[in-house]
């Protein structure tokens, strides 16, 4: 039922079963609600477990919160966490990460970061998932300095930042036009450097009109077997347009055609701007 995301069938089987369902049964049904975004059903299941005089554990509470998070119902997720605490069920790293994720999905990045800071202050064990969620909140809030600090803290906690963590920190720097810091993070990401991270740096360089650095990074991507996509080339074209480099823009368009890359409206518009600037 969980794998098929068939919460309806699961509820039907539970109602017809002669065996009394337990917390594990309800947790499995909760997970199927997450997959089908039936967050109201998850709340109903939580209430049903209460009526059956069960004692929901932190896993069941976290599953209900996750159902709310999947539907971006951050207020409900926070309410469940508050209720869980009032019943002397202490949140663990999973429930904290779920609550942070719910806030991040609901554009409540400041709440997400606040929970992360509170958890650290209370000396709770924080895993890579929680750090990653906090880093994405930094990207959403354009808090590039805090993002870099979090990456350094991960190393101090013996956690190895993955591609998603680096990309979030790089995106935060890029959003604030901090291309130097974005490039520094990319150079330190090692094997975690992927197309998303490179594109974030290219966007920052493009907006700063560093067309030569964009072309250098595009060439570097190929050497790293990280393949440029339409976003990569579009960012470089933007830099060429701002820097009046019509020759470079024309070469990029030709290269894109050779590998059958569709530049889209934005890409071709940037190329035209570069050519018009050069009166070609």
UniProtKB/TrEMBL annotation:
Transmembrane segments: none
Name by which UniProt lists this protein: Pentatricopeptide repeat-containing protein, chloroplastic
InterPro entries: PPR_rpt (IPR002885), TPR-like_helical_dom_sf (IPR011990)
PPR repeats: from-to residues: 22-56, 57-91
Pfam families reported for this sequence: PPR, PPR_3
Keyword terms, alphabetized: Repeat
Alphabetical list of PROSITE patterns matching this protein: PPR
Species this chain originates from: Noctiluca scintillans
Superkingdom field: Eukaryota
